[in-house]
Design goal:
Mean pLDDT: 81
Number of helices: 8
Helix content: 40-55%
Number of strands: 3
Low-confidence stretches: 142-152, 158-169
CATH class: Mainly Alpha
Shape: globular
Radius of gyration: 16 Å
CATH topology: hpI Integrase, Chain A
Distance between the termini: 21 Å
CATH superfamily: Intergrase catalytic core
Strand order of the largest sheet: 1-2-3
Largest sheet: 3 strands, antiparallel
């Protein structure tokens, strides 16, 4: 079976994508995907308590394979998340990104997918862009140093899938 290489965005393309987000909420979703390399289901299920500003990590609970892991939290993302939370704060919700319809539920993963698709269209990007593209970008930023550490933090257990992405960069 032949595998195609994943789409990797340049730094300028990522900047265009973030600038093209329609709303501040969509921008923070894309920014969080980009900064953490989290899967969209992991991102949507983040709770406020998963952001550890003391240790500067985001705790991912029950990721792929039901594994928990910590992802580095950049100071820039922490500032953006705090601004987002102050603006969209909903006292009745523990979710970092609560649903607009049911405060006791997180946003749907499709919301993240649509935000990414629409921003890519508005930015005029010619590449196929979806939330997982930002995960690939997060991996490509740290190569070649720290390959194993990046794999572990992003919840990857098989080195062959990472080798394909490394080849793409």
């Amino acid at each position: 079976m032949t595998r195609s290489l994943p789409t990797i965005l340049s730094q300028e393309e990522v900047a265009q994508l973030l600038r093209a987000a329609r709303t501040p909420c969509e921008r923070i979703l894309l920014m969080a995907l980009y900064a953490t390399g989290a899967r969209r289901s992991e991102l949507t299920h983040l709770k406020v308590s998963d952001i550890d500003s003391q240790r500067m990590v985001v705790h991912i609970r029950g990721g792929k394979g039901r594994k928990d892991r910590d992802i580095m939290l950049s100071p820039k993302l922490l500032t953006a998340l705090r601004t987002h939370w102050r603006f969209y704060h909903r006292k009745s919700s523990a979710w970092l990104f609560p649903s607009n319809y049911r405060k006791d539920r997180p946003i749907d993963t499709k919301t993240v997918w649509y935000a990414c698709q629409k921003a890519a269209q508005r930015a005029g990007l010619q590449k196929r862009v979806h939330p997982h593209t930002l995960r690939h970008y997060a991996e490509s930023r740290t190569m070649p140093n720290g390959v194993c550490e990046t794999q572990r933090k992003q919840g990857r257990s098989a080195s062959h899938s990472f080798a394909i992405q490394h080849h793409a960069a």
